[in-house]
Design a protein that fits this description.
The structure is a homoheptamer of 78-residue chains. The first copy, chain A, has 78 residues and is mainly beta. Chain A has a single domain, classed as Roll (SH3 type barrels). Chain A is built from one helix and six strands, in the order H-E-E-E-E-E-E. Chain A has one helix spanning 5-11; strands at 16-21, 26-34, 40-43, 59-61, 66-68, 73-77. In chain A, strands 1, 2, 3, 4, 5 and 6 form a six-stranded mixed sheet that branches. In chain A, strand 1 and strand 2 form a beta hairpin. At the B-C interface, helix 1 and strand 6 of B face strand 2, strand 3 and strand 5 of C. Chains A, B, C, D, E, F, G: Residues 45-78 are annotated as: Disordered. Chains A, B, C, D, E, F, G: Residues 4-78 form the Sm domain. Chains A, B, C, D, E, F, G: Keywords: Ribonucleoprotein.
């Protein structure tokens, strides 16, 4: 067992994650922060982290720090 | 009687579950965690658990730890 | 008078209910549990309970324990 | 002046009401209960109560106790 | 300045108002009550109050006491 | 820096504002009041205030006091 | 790691940001303020700040102070 949702986010701070949104887009980047609403902060990857989710045409790697409001999120894959 | 919704989730930690989303997709995996919003953590199945829900073309077995935000969830079937 | 919504659910624990969802589907089963958000747990009927709502093509009798998130629910008919 | 919304519901417990939903349907029945979210319980009318709202093709008189989740409700007419 | 939204409603209790809903309909009537969610109670006008909003084909004057759930409301015009 | 959203509203009480709604409409008027949900009260302009937002065909200047429920609001421009 | 979402906003007060909305529009301006709902205040840029997000045809630089209600926001890019 991996723990509660926020525990999983805490354990993945600084690691690459893929955030899938309700509009179909997926953002990938380094998990810079989060809060209890699942608002997340993504940062450009440092180069050595690789999100495990498959990248397809609707996936965008963030080029600068990006705050995503939690109510848009479908799933977060560390 | 099986108990309240969160009790049922607690009793199924580590077991295979199928999570049906509002967009029609179903994710299956091992229930790694959850919280009071029905945010859930799915993990790749260890091999010996089998969700009971029928698998069809819109069902995806998670390949890595996946946090699903609760407001997307229609149903969870242990 | 039948009482407040949660009182009606409490009185019907273990009995057959039909849960109609916003997506048009109706799930029937034994009411295994509920909480204040109207999240409900349905279980396969034991054989002697029969929901009173009419069954049509969009009605599905649950084959295993199913947690339904309350915000999908339109109505619950004991 | 008739009072606050919950006061009006309280004053109409046991009386016939029409509940119009966001999906266009209208349910009529006897008001069996309610709570602060405007979740309501409708019961088959005892025979002597008559909701004042006009009945049209999308109006359904409940045939058994029905809990309606408040977030589907547009209006309630005693 | 007219005051906070609930103050404006309080000042208009018993007066004619027009309530515009998200589905495009507008209900007019006498403001019988309200609460902090902007749930409102409309009553048939006593005859001497006249809502100031223009009446068009989608406007309906309530013929009996009507509770409108606040989350349907776009605007209220005393 | 202009301050938090509610501070900006407070500072503009009595001044002309344009309120853009999710349905595409824009209402202009004098800001008569507001609350923490961004419910706002617009009043007919006194004549000397002029909202800065461009007026186009979907813009309506309120002709009487209008309460707008906050969950319809996209933006408010003093 | 960059910190929690509100910390990132706090650190960017007075700097240029791009706010992407659910309706597809993107507003750019100087971050004048924010609150815990991710309601934000944008102000016309002073001239020396430049949001990092790409500007395309759906991007609008605010010409006057603009309050954006948080529930419309998809992402904020400092």
């Amino acid at each position: 067992m991996s723990g509660r949702p926020l525990d999983v986010l805490e354990a993945n701070l600084g690691d690459g994650v893929a955030v899938r949104l309700k509009d179909g887009a997926t953002y990938t980047g380094e998990l810079g922060g989060y809060d209890q609403h699942l608002n997340v902060v993504l940062e450009p990857a440092g180069g050595d982290s690789e999100p495990s989710a498959g990248e397809d045409e609707a996936t965008e790697t963030v080029e600068s720090t990006t705050i995503i409001r939690g109510d848009n999120v479908v799933s977060i894959t560390p």
